[in-house]
Amino acid sequence: MSSIEMRIQELRVQIRNHDHQYFVLNEPLISDAEYDALIRELRMLELSHREYQSDDSPTNLLYPAIDGQFKKVRHPQVMMSLAKAFKEKEISDWHSRLEKEIGTEGMAWTAEPKIDGLAIALTYVNGVLVRAATRGNGEIGEDVTANIETINTIPTQLRRDTHIQVPSEIEVRGEIYMRTDEFDALNERLRAAGEKTAANPRNAAAGSLRQKDPRVTATRPLRFFAYAIGPVSGAWPDTQWETLMALKGLGFDINEHVRRFTDFVALINYAREWMGKRDELPYEVDGIVFKVDSLAQQRELGIVGTDPRWAIAYKFEARETSSILKNITVAVGRTGV
Predict the structure, then answer these.
(1) For residue 118, with 0-12 CB atoms within 10 Å meaning exposed, 13-18 middle and 19 or more buried, which class applies?
(2) CA distance 144 to 115
(3) Which of 51, 153, 174, 267 could cross-link to 261 by cystine, CB 3.0-4.6 Å?
(4) According to CATH, what is the number of the domain 3-60?
(5) Start-end ranges of CATH 1.10.287.610 in the chain?
(6) What is the SS3 string spanning the chain?
(7) How many CB atoms lie within 10 A of CB 189?
(8) In whole angstroms, what is the distance from residue 303 CA to residue 240 CA?
(9) Burial class of residue 171 in the structure, from the number of CB atoms within 10 Å of its CB (0-12 exposed, 13-18 middle, 19+ buried)
(10) Which residues are registered as beta bridge partners of 134?
(11) In sequence order, which residues have a C-beta less than 8 Å from that of residue 165 and are 6 or more positions away?
């Protein structure tokens, strides 16, 4: 086995282990930036050495298998992942691909902070919430309806006192999250009770939502931002921006910092602005999500692999921290080493 093949196999094992820790156990061992670096290295090796590509590689899978704690439900429409960009040039390259695929004259985009939480799909029939499912592996999620119904920012019935016509059936997608101040307060409460604390707000949100007893979930400060729709039956707007405004009218919280742009340079400037003030937000974000505004153009662009061509996540740089080494303990093994 060549050194390249050995490294590819090593990366796949590492990534699968980290996927299990993050998605199933809600106890990540590394930061998002470190995880993204492993994925990038594996993807580059597979692209440059196609003889070692494999259908079951983590780069070809949406998300890992779920653990079966809750009833499994199949999503009527796959919940995709997002392509990631780490430099402005990669955003410019995305724009160039859009230009090449369908042209960008007259194109508009939406941009909003990327919440570091847990993706969820909410199904409403005749305006009533009938099912809530986690993303799971993108195709099959977990039914967490009873727990979702305890979250105050998620309507169990859609508003009908607006100009928005309620579809006969609609799937609303968004993010479950926890504010940083409420996360700190929760950890203090858990610590005082001698219970296990969470490492970060994302883990706290995921763990709180996946409680077997909805009464426990009801005590956790979970919130929800709507950012997209899945399948819909009936009349609906034809742009992402109008979709967000319609969701707001139906009773959902949307991110107050979402913006629509017709100038791509202004879109880049929006991202630069948030790079410098991410810590001003009361919740954790790890980037900015850009989407082509027209839903018709989104359908025309389609997907590549597991990612839609019409959207991209511009990831923030990892925060730099410093540690103080206080002590070193040297031990001698039984072999003298």
Answers:
(1) buried
(2) 20
(3) 267
(4) 1.10.287.610
(5) 3-60
(6) CCHHHHHHHHHHHHHHHHHHHHHHCCCCCCCHHHHHHHHHHHHHHHHHCHHHCCCCCHHHCCCCCCCCCCCEEECCCCCCCCCEECCHHHHHHHHHHHHHHCCCCCCCEEEEEEECCEEEEEEEECCEEEEEEECCCCCEEEECHHHHCCCCCCCCECCCCCCCCCCCEEEEEEEEECCHHHHHHHHHHHHHCCCCCCCCHHHHHHHHHCCCCHHHHHCCCCEEEEEEEEEEECCCCCEHHHHHHHHHHCCCCCCCCCEEECCHHHHHHHHHHHHHHHHHCCCCEEEEEEEECEHHHHHHHCEECCEECCEEEEECCCCCCCCCCCCCCCCCCCCCC
(7) 13
(8) 17
(9) buried
(10) 120
(11) 234, 235
The architecture of the domain spanning 72-315 is 2-Layer Sandwich (3.30)
pTM exceeding the 0.90 threshold for the entire prediction: no
Do the Cβ atoms of 173 and 232 come closer than 8 Å?
no
Q: What percent of the chain has pLDDT over 70?
A: 89
User: What are the residues facing 259 on neighbouring strands?
Assistant: 111
Catalytic residues: 114
Q: What pLDDT score does 333 carry? A: 46
The CATH 3.30.470.30 domain(s) of the chain lie at 72-315
Residue type, 228: A
| Integer Rg of the chain from CA | 21
> Are 98 and 104 in contact, with CB atoms under 8 Å apart?
yes
Would you place residue 337 in the very low, low, confident or very high pLDDT band (cuts 50, 70, 90)? very low
The position carrying tokens 């199949």 is 74
Q: What confidence tier does 41 reach under pLDDT thresholds 50, 70, 90?
A: confident
